[in-house]
Specification:
The chain is mainly alpha-helical. 79% of the residues lie in helices and 2% in strands. Keywords: Plasmid.
Length: 164
């Protein structure tokens, strides 16, 4: 048989455990809410940055369109300016949206302006390939910005001959 004091002690322990579990849940929820808030802030900043980048592409398209209109290809120029205006409108609509909304907007833009969408995709691909090839052509000494000479043998730290 148990002593009568063991029952209240066990009940107190259960109550304390329940309180601790509740406090832990509240703390975890607050931490999760804070983390979600920080992620949303970061995404908001990135979508604003993306909107500015898309706006820059739109401005470039409009400038190219104006140059083509002034030269011997006015029809292509008008089309390029129209695409630029459409992209600029899309860029303004992107600001303050979350990633899901931006994906829906991109899908709608692709349906409404398929040639513009493909043109932007091609432009992005061209830009990325130019960046990668320019980065690949840089030699290690150009990346460092200097060559370090070692010893009297006339060779550099990279193993090549020192010119000059």
């Amino acid at each position: 048989m148990r002593p009568p004091q063991a029952e209240p002690s066990l009940a107190d322990l259960k109550s304390k455990l329940a309180d601790d579990v509740t406090a832990a849940r509240v703390t975890i929820k607050e931490g999760a809410d804070t983390a979600v808030e920080k992620v949303n802030e970061a995404i908001s900043e990135q979508t604003y940055f993306a909107a500015r980048q898309v706006g820059g592409i739109a401005t470039a398209l409009e400038m190219v369109g104006a140059e083509l209109e002034a030269s011997d290809q006015p029809e292509i120029g008008r089309y390029a300016r129209q695409i630029g205006r459409s992209v600029q409108t899309a860029a303004k609509r992107m600001e303050g949206k979350d990633l899901g909304e931006i994906a829906v907007m991109a899908e709608e833009f692709g349906r409404k302006q398929p040639l513009a969408f493909l043109g932007i995709a091609a432009l992005a691909g061209l830009s990325a390939s130019r960046f990668l090839t320019a980065s690949a052509k840089r030699s290690p000494t150009e990346a460092i910005g200097q060559t370090v000479a070692v010893g009297r043998s006339g060779s550099s730290a990279t193993g090549g001959e020192i010119n000059g």
